[in-house]
Amino acid sequence: MSHNLYHKEILPASDGMYRYALSIVREPETAKDIVQDCLTKIWSIRKDLDKVEKVNAWAFRIVRNRCIEILRRNRYADLDEKVVNMRHSDPVEEQAITNDFMSLMRKVLKELPVKQQEVFHLREVEDMSYQDIAETCGLTESDVKVNIHRARKKVKEAMQKIDAYGIAN
């Protein structure tokens, strides 16, 4: 039965799985690899497919999780590459770039509302949990998450603008 379920439900959905993966990772070859990995994983546990209530949704969830895993791994690889490139640069230039970046970051953070500054600092600098931040600031966990999300979004937009145009504001 599970073998048939794989061929009737999973394989026909593989094109949709590819499109979904492509929409997340934005690289055709990586999306193909992800779908192939997921199909292999699903095939290896095909005996248990009868236990899955919504096989299609479950398969797409596996694709999504694999995409996120790949993106996280690539993000750190990109950071490692940047660090290696920085090590080969001029120390004076490196220090100037770092100082400029920190100055711009401080300016961006000062423009955030006070509550967002506070929760952002507690989360990103102090590495506190959402629950601890909520208790510290007298907010709900939901409020903390919303404020951190908004702060990160504003910081990201400002940094992208600076990176793209070389200007702050």
Automatic annotation (TrEMBL):
GO biological process: DNA-templated transcription initiation
InterPro entries per record: RNA_pol_sigma-70-like, RNA_pol_sigma-70_dom, RNA_pol_sigma70_r2, RNA_pol_sigma70_r4_t2, RNA_pol_sigma_r2, RNA_pol_sigma_r3/r4-like, WH-like_DNA-bd_sf
Keywords on record: DNA-binding, Sigma factor, Transcription, Transcription regulation
Boundaries of every RNA polymerase sigma-70 region domain copy: 17-75
Residue span, RNA polymerase sigma factor 70 region 4 type domain: 105-154
One of the record's GO molecular function terms: DNA binding
Organism: Ekhidna lutea
Record-stated family: Belongs to the sigma-70 factor family. ECF subfamily.
Protein name: RNA polymerase sigma-70 factor, ECF subfamily
Domain of life: Bacteria
